[in-house]
Amino acid sequence: MKVLIVILRWFVGILFIFSGLIKANDPMGLSYKMQEFFEIWGWHALNDYTLFFSIAMIAFEIIAGVAVIIGWQFRLFSILLFLLIVFFTFLTGYAVFSGKVRECGCFGDCIKLTSMESFIKDIILFVMIGILLIKKKAVRSWLKPVKATALLLGTAFLSVWVQIYVLDHLPIIDCLPFKTGNNITEGMQIPPGALPDSTVINFVYQHNGQEVEFDAEHFPADFNDSAYTFLRRYDKLIREGNAKPPIKDFVIISPTGNDTTTAILNDPEDQLILFAKTLDNNQAKWISDIIEIAKVLGTSGFFVVTSDAENMTAILKQNNITLPVMKGDLVSIKTAARTNPTLFHLRQGQILAKYGRKDINLFLKRINEIEK
Fold first, then answer.
1. Among candidate residues 83, 57, 78, 58, the one with its CA nearest the CA of residue 68
2. CATH of domain 252-371
3. Are residues 123 and 115 in contact, defined by beta-carbon separation less than 8 angstroms?
4. N or C: which end of the chain has fewer CB within 10 A?
């Protein structure tokens, strides 16, 4: 039994560390996933706190994984991990049985699991952590308290620092469809060989005061127009396919209301796009960088794509910046711009480079070097 407990501790610990590190690479992604659940449940008031929840949860996963491996404060962490896996199992189970969430974000965007795969994983972990909880009294730390405390504090610091870093400089490992080197036009196409959703048409009729439902191959034996009153029909999903483009709902609308997406993505000239969500005017650093870039390159082929065009226009005007402001889909912008804002360098839809809000000055240095 002792050998089994050691194996379980290492397996559970490594898995939680691995899961936490993958999500630490992109804490904003987990934040958006939390918002998706909160929107479904109507908990809109919590949307402003999801990034804090994301950072805290990711840090705890990594810390708890280390604590379980070394056996430090094992009684406490076995209880906390059990409560966490109960919570995760509820979320993945809800995603599976409600059908309202396709992916749970357990391993971020780098390792995508279906809701069912995530649910099965959590059930297995539930059993493993349950065994560790039952045998918690038999576990002793193999590090002295001072060393164990130092290790956990160091782990906590690094897990939070990494997340803060990527929130300013973009994910270290980019697993999103808008990563450097990808072509946006190609990403908007359905992959070759993809399978479409398999559906069947279901009919709903009223019969003897009750609703009855059947498909085209299973009409009732006594079916006739007078006894059955048609109510509605719908497509029922039988098997989910994968005929979905990696990039969805990517659109760029000009100030005059015209769709300029195709024109921009097909332009052979270099394009600079500043993707931004809703902004306030407390972003002096990136504003100054944008002013300098506009001075060097001018405003041709340089514009802003935002979901809040009115607010962005006002901010640019206050800073005497005359860049065109285009409208874009908020969800698409969230995927493209993990920092707010993010600068993209495009050529015919190809992403040549992109810069987080604290790295926009790097592009400025590049063009200054070219000018020299």
1. 78
2. 3.40.30.10
3. no
4. C
Calculated CA dihedral for residues 157, 163, 168, 170, nearest 10 degrees = 140
> Do residues 161 and 325 touch, judged by C-beta distance below 8 A?
no
Domain boundaries, the chain: 2-169, 198-239, 252-371
CA distance 74 to 132: 9
Angle between helices 50-70 and 145-169 (to 10 degrees): 150
Task: Kindly give the pairing relationship between strand 229-239 and strand 210-215.
Answer: unpaired
Both tokens assigned to 211: 């609703």
71: exposed, middle or buried (Cβ count in 10 Å: 0-12, 13-18, 19+): buried
Q: What confidence score (pLDDT) does residue 163 get?
A: 96
Distance CA 347, CA 290 (A): 19
- CA-to-CA separations, 192 to 25, 183, 188, 219, in angstroms, rounded: 30, 16, 12, 37
